[in-house]
Amino acid sequence: MELKTILFYLFAVIMVFAALRVVTARNPVHAVLFLVLAFFNAAGLWMLLQAEFLSIMLVMVYVGAVMVLFLFVVMMLDINIEQMRKGFWTHLPLGAGVGLLMVAEMAVVLSGRYFGLQNFPPQNLPANHSNTKELARVMFTDYVYPFELASVILLVAVIAAVMLTQRTRKDTKGMHPNDQIAVKRNDRLRIVRMVSEPPEVQAVDAKAEEKS
Asked: Topology of domain 3-79+112-211, per CATH?
C-alpha cells in the first residue's frame, strides 16, 4: 500500500470520527474543538488531491478565524445543555430526514455516474502547473461579476452588523466619550481632612512619651 493511500485513510477515519463527535459531544466547547479537528483533516485530504490553495484557505479562514469566533461565542453564551436536550426526540425525525437526504446526494455525487469524478484530479499535468494560478484566472475572468457581487454582499453585511451594534438600546448603560473627556477633577475627586486620633488619645500619648 502506498504512503498516499495510507494518509488518505488516516485523514478520512479521523475526520469521520471528529464529525461524529461534533454531533454527539455533550459539551458545546468540545463539539467546536472536534469540528476544528475535522477541518484540519479535510485540509489534509485537499492537499492529497493537489488542491493546495483550498487546503490553506480551509485552515486559515475556517480554523483560524471562523471556528475561533465560534469557540468564543459558545464559551460566552453559557448554554444550558439540559434545556437544549428537551427537544431532542421532537426534532429527531426532521434531522434524520435531512441527514438521509444529504447521504443520498453524496452517494450520487461520489458514484461518478453523472458528475464524472473519475477524471478528478486531472492527470498528466505539467511540472510548473499551479492550481492557485488557474483558480485565480477563472475567478477573475469567467466569474468576475459573481465574485464582485459576492464582495458587495459581504460588504453590506459587515456594514449592517456595525450599524446594529451602534444602535441605541434602553436596556444597557453606557457613557458618551465626550462626557468622559470633559469631566473635571472636582467632579470625580474630593479631598477630606480627617484626624487620625481624637485629642484625648493624642494627650495620653504625649504624657506617656514624657514619662518615658
From this structure: Four Helix Bundle (Hemerythrin (Met), subunit A) (1.20.120)
